[in-house]
Each structure stands twice: as structure tokens, then as C-alpha cells.
Amino acid sequence: MLSAKALTTLVAYQIRRSLARKRLLILIASIFLLEIVIYLVLTRLPETLIRPLAGYAWIIGVLAPSTALIHVLALMVGATTSAEEYEVGTADYWLTRPVTRFEYFVGNLAGGLTFLSILILLYSFFAAAISSYVFGPQTGLTVLPTTALSTIVSVLVFYSLGLAVGELLRRSMLSTILAGLVFFGSFIAETYLNIVSVLNNEPSLLDLARYLPTWGAVRLASTTTFNGLDAPALGTVFLQFFTAIGQTGETGLLLANISAYTAAALAVSWIRLRYTDVTRKAL
Amino acid sequence: MYETVVVRDLVKVYGDGGRVGPVSLTVRRQEVYGLVGPNGSGKTTTIRVILGLQKPSSGTVTVKGYNPFKESKKINLFTGYSPELPVYPPFYTARQLLTITCKLKGLSRHDAKREVDRLLDLVGLVNHADRKIGNFSKGMVQRLSVGLAMVGDPEILVLDEPMLGVDPVGRVQIRDILKDLKREGKTIIFSSHELYEVERLADTVGMLYMGRTVLEKPVAELLNNRGGMRVVAELKKPPRPETLERLRTLKGVEQVSAEAERVTILMNGYDVREEVARILANSDTGLVGLKTQNPTLEEVFIQVVENALR
């Protein structure tokens, strides 16, 4: 049975640890900066272009980080959550207290995810607040919790992938680079497949793209958001971008993609932790 | 006496080809066990296997009958551990980390507060209790590490190089803590390069060399053993080379060394005091006095290592 004390302690520890890391703080700051820049740019656009969008401006701020930045942050948090523990030697501390390896695994996993969830909720609220302030009352804000929840679910792919690579390599920088390569590699491959599919009129290539890890992770939040919104909002110039990614109506497949990658990555992490030595770089 | 920690033919093979073992040792209840050996001899690996951090490639390890790798949580409930070169989350203060450790050990909030204050006082960190660990010196982290190991008054303490990096005052404090714990009847396993510390504190010593156990004996028995005893002769003037050569040829003499008017003869299982006295008295050096000295643990260790190398 899992000990609530051990889990809550580890969750609090992982949040504190993430906040103490400069690299993560820079990335978090850049997410909020992105929000500000997006709305600043929107205010500079011609009013005829902005007017139909104004009521839905919150969507842009909420969805923008979920296209790439939040996944990069997730893989960084994942990779450091596991790897740094061994690299620095703090895994020794936890695993020589009354904490089982499973509690340690679940506690760390939950800690990193809680940190990401808080961040997603914060920037989602920030986007809603800033868009309301700049463009007036917003429409469809009832969908915001679903969007935020979908974003949390979507970060699971690269968070657990980072965790798995970190657990396998036990070197934080190397793990971050490798997990980053998987993300950007998948992103580029998907874009390439989309382009070739259109140029050659080969829809089968789009099916192939569905097996890539970015397919579910990048699309889920926009898909669930636009599924929950009225149609007129989808017609605007700016939201076309998200609908193109969204391909609404495929939530089930997107969740299947996310679940498969998350489950596989978590299984690898757990097996590595359960059956191998707790290493320490310093020794 | 009840056997608390039993290691039998432990072998640990690393991925890079490194190997430790076979290591065998038995730590009895309420015993202070000193694990000694040069760098890379396998002390830390043995300790990490005892704590379940590493899995043995072969052999068996039990702590109060539990398998450390499979039942580490049970073991950690009654065990305290201080690692070699300890590292703790730098963003916590000493008080915060001690409180967290108390919580994990199952202490109530009230008991935890009392325990934290007691341990801070014991390891001499009262004035640094609310400073971030990241700002601590190496010695302060080591003291905190000993304090963390003692949270919840564990029955068994495993301390890997507890004096490493600690200043002389801190060493005395840690030594006093260990003495108190010994008096309280705790089972303590500690590794050290400082053989003098081991000699003073340990009941039993386990010597590791090149990854394997080369000796395991009670310290008293080891030091009182005739083998390794030294005879120190005080002379009126420095001895001639031929006198030293005659001493070297005596049966049971391991080593003869001369320094000005003093000759030191290391015996190996035989009592050669009479012969030594006769040779020196008959020479022109003028024998002033003859005394015997028990070997230090360091000398015994060197002797054991030399024998292992032959």
C-alpha cells in the first residue's frame, strides 16, 4: 500500500526542486512572456481583423504554449525529476528512509505532474484574464477547464518520455537533449509527412503521422477546445491555425496515442527503478 | 549474541567490469563494527548492498532476517544511514529536512519538533538550523547527515565515513555521539579510513582489500595477538649494521628498523624478547631499556594487506 505521508512529502519536494532550477524558471518565464507578446501583437493588428476574434482571444493565449513550449518544459521536468536525483545523490536520501521504490516512483511522478498542472492552470488563467482585460468579455470560457485539463493530459507524453530517458541514462543534461530530440524529431517528421501527403495526395501518410508521439500531445488541447465551442469562432483567421492542428472529432484516437506512449514510457521507468541499483555519480 | 547483519559471500559485479567480493561479515546486536580498507576496496558497495540500494550479483545479505533489496522500507524503519560525501536538497534548511525525515519515520508533529531540536543540539547545528543546506560547509553537511541518520532513535546505524571532511571539533563531537550510542546499546556499522578512530570505537573490525574480506576479528583480540607485537630497545649509541643483521636473522622477527639510539623489532608470532636483549647486551651499543608495544590497527592492517599480497 502507498503511504500518503511519503507521497505528499515527495510531491512537495519535487515542486520545490523544480522551482529551484534556473533552466526551468527561464522556460516558465518565457511561457508568460509568450502570452504577453501574443496579446501585444493582437492589439497592433487591424481592427477589422481583430473584431470577430475579440470574444475568443483567450483561446490563443491558452493554446499557444501547448503547441510546443509546454511539451519542452514537460520533457525537461521529466528528465530532471529522475536523472538529477541519481546525478546529485538525493535518491540515496529518499531510498534510505521508510519509502518503497514504488512510493518513490509514484511520488516523483506525481510531484512533477503537479508542478506542470499548476503551471498550466496559472498560464490558462493568466491568458483568460489578460484577454478579458484587453479585448473585453470573453465567450466560451466554460470550455477553459476542459482545455486546461486536456493540456495536462497532453503533457503526459513528453513528461513520461523525459522521465523514462532520465531513469535509463541517469544524466539530466543528456536525458533532456535526447528527449528533446524525440520531440523535435517527431514534430519535424509530422510536418514533413503532412506536406508530402498534400503534395502527393497520399492520405496514408497522414495515418502514419498518427503513430508519432507529437500527434496526440500537440493536438488534444485544441481538439477538445474546438469541440466544445460554437462554430462561428472557428472561422476566424487566427483560430484556423489551431483548427488545422485540431482535426476535431478524433479525441478518442488522440487519447489512445497519448495513453500508449505514456504507459510505455512509465513502464520503462518503473522497471529500471525497480530492478536495478540506485546509482550515484559522485561515487 | 544475536546476528543483526549477515553478509555471506557477497559479490557485486559492475557493468564496467569492476568487481567487489567475496565479502562476508557478521554484525551482532549492540556491536560497533568498523569496516576498514583502502579506497576502492568495496566498503561503500558493501554498505549500499546492506541498505538495499544495490542488488548483489551473488551471495546473501540479511538485516534482522530481512532481504534489503526486497524489503528496504522495513529495514529503513529501524536503520539510520549517513552516506559517504552526503548530498541533500540544497533548498531545504537543516530544520526542514530533519522535520521531513521525522515525518517519514512516522513521528507525530509534536514528537518531531522535540526530536529535531534534540538532534540539532546534538550535532552542533542549532545556530545554523534555519540556513539553507546549500550554504553549508562540507563538515556541516556531514554533521547534519549524522543527525538525519539518528532520527527516530534507530536500532541500527550505518555510517559511511562519518568523519570525512569534518573539522577536529566536529570529529570530537561525532566521536562522542558514537560513544554515547555505543553505551546505549545501538548496533553501529561504520567505515573509515581513520584506523585510529576504528581502533577507539569498534568492537569488531572487518578488513576489506581489493574487494574481498581479508580479516574479521574483535579489535581487542586483534591488537593483543602476539603476532605484530613490537619490541623497542633504547640504546646508548646507534647500533652497528652487523648487530641489526643478527637481529633480522632471528626466527620470528618480521622487521627491524633503527633510528638513532632506538631499534624497533616487529615480531611475528614468536616472543623473541630474550634473544633481542642478549644480542644487544653483548654488542657495543649499550642496552638502556627494552619495552614491548602492541601494534596499532594500522600496523595490523598493513601486515594483513602484505600477507594478502604474498
How would you concisely characterize the structure shown here?
Helices cover 80% and strands 0% of the residues of chain A.
Note the topology.
The complex is a heterodimer of chains A (283) and B (310).
Chain A: H1 4-19, H2 22-44, H3 47-50, H4 57-67, H5 69-88, H6 90-95, H7 101-135, H8 144-169, H9 172-200, H10 204-209, H11 213-227, H12 237-246, H13 251-275
Chain B: E1 3-13, E2 19-28, E3 32-36, H1 43-50, E4 58-63, H2 72-77, E5 79-82, H3 94-104, H4 109-122, H5 138-149, E6 156-160, H6 168-183, E7 187-192, H7 195-201, E8 204-209, E9 212-218, H8 219-224, E10 230-235, H9 241-248, E11 253-259, E12 262-267, H10 273-282, E13 287-293, H11 297-309
Parallel strand pairs in B: 3-7, 3-8, 5-6, 6-7
Antiparallel strand pairs in B: 1-2, 1-4, 8-9, 10-12, 10-13, 11-12
Question: What would your notes on this structure say?
Answer:
With 283 residues, chain A is mainly alpha-helical. Chain A is 80% helix and 0% strand. Chain A has one domain (4-275). Chain A contains 13 helices and no strands. In chain A, helix 2 runs parallel beside helix 7. With 310 residues, chain B is of the alpha/beta class. Chain B folds into two domains: 3-223, Rossmann fold (3-Layer(aba) Sandwich), CATH 3.40.50; 230-293, Alpha-Beta Plaits (2-Layer Sandwich). Chain B has eleven helices and 13 strands. In chain B, the strands form three sheets. Chain B has a six-stranded mixed sheet, sandwiched between helices. In chain B, strands 11-12-10-13 form a four-stranded antiparallel sheet, covered by helices on one side. In chain B, strand 11 and strand 12 (262-267) form a beta hairpin. The longest helix of chain B is centred in the middle third of the chain and has 16 residues, at 168-183.
